[in-house]
Design goal:
Shape: rod-shaped
Structural class: alpha+beta
CATH superfamily of the largest domain: Immunoglobulins
Strand order of the largest sheet: 6-5-8-9
Largest sheet: 4 strands, antiparallel
Helix content: 10-25%
Order of helices and strands: HHEEHEEEEEEE
CATH class of the largest domain: Mainly Beta
Strand content: 25-35%
CATH topology of the largest domain: Immunoglobulin-like
Amino acid sequence: MTSIVAKNSRKISEIFQMGKKDKIRCAEETFNPWVGVRELLVGWILAGLLSFLLIFPLSAFATPPSDVQLSYADKDQVLQVTIAHYSFAPSYHYIKRVEIQKNSEKPVVYEYTNQPDKSPFTYTYKLLLKEGDRVEVKAICSLYGSKSSSLTISKPATK
């Protein structure tokens, strides 16, 4: 019993030596076996890309804020919030919101649409705090995660 490849080895070698414009004659019909190969290849590439995006969504590359540090300048009544948040695209993956809650009051929310290119970066907020006040700050990423930090205002050191 002889295989189809062995029986038609000459025809098969002709097909692989053909150009895109060449045609072969088989069973009283003329055709080009390479027609549709480009479309098939594009389909496979698109299917592979779609599979990759479904398996590894973009949010998998998102990182939450890694650190939030607070300091308060009593003289200027300014709260400094220093946030460490690495971003591969600061206009797309950024600190979306900073929530500041003083004691148990309703939090004040600051919305952002991007972040500075370098990390860490500092935002400053005018805020009146007195001794004993507790402030909690929550930094929220636009893609994934958040980080909180708190600060209790203590009596200034005497000299």
